[in-house]
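Course assignment 3, question 2. Fill in each field.
Student: A.L.
Task: Predict the tertiary structure for the chain below.
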Amino acid sequence: MKISEISVRTIITKSNLPAADFVINPYVGCSHACRYCYARFMKRFTGHEEAWGSFVDAKVNAIDLIPESGDRYREKSIFMSSVTDPYLPQERAYGLTRRILEKLVFLEPRLGIQTKSDLIVRDIDILRQFTNCEAGLTITTLDDSVRKEVERGASSVSKRLSALKALHDAGIRTYAFIGPIMPGLTDWKAIIEETRSFTDFYMLENLNMAGGVRQSMMQWISAQQPDLVTEYEHIYGRCNDYWDGVEAEIRDYCSKQEIDGRIFFHHGRKA
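Answer field:
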């Protein structure tokens, strides 16, 4: 893992996400090295030759770029983070996310924060100071042997579940991000049932195989999950309505179970 320190010109940027006005990414790159990571497209903007997942740049001047006061971000939604994880293992040494949060409290935004790390519980004391805060843990599987293969640098499943419960018990509004849903590998119903006593709502996203994700995932599936190769080739072939059916099933299930499930599917018929 190559770790570097960089200075940047801005840290709070306009968001392209549908549910956020602004985003903050304290780091460039990500050491989780998830096989399905859509953010790998960011590599071409970084100047790195290393493979995505093998480098992290810490934006060491990030805190200096956040104003001490002002109304610009009051009641605006700020999301951490869109193309990295705010709680990478490197956060233990740099503490960028914690110091950013400490300054954001006084700007009174609507905060959304999402991670694959139980390190988030370290900052419960700060998260509780926000008037409006939603904290989420990404959970793609309950099988830690699969997690070790597809999210090898991220926290274990059990640690994520414990972190989600700790956030909820602290009075923070919580959500589980079930995504990407990997056909044959992600049991979204089981994840909901496992977490619903300490989760306020769910966000669900399907596996998007665009860009370099297809090669990364198919190489692993061919080697480790060969029984799924034919299914994946069918699902991600031309004019397939597989995800339409999954979405309909999720909507029906959530409606009957009175669960707040928010679907963020990509419905392109060709990956």
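Instructor remarks: The chain has a mean pLDDT of 94. The radius of gyration is 18 Å.
Grade: pending
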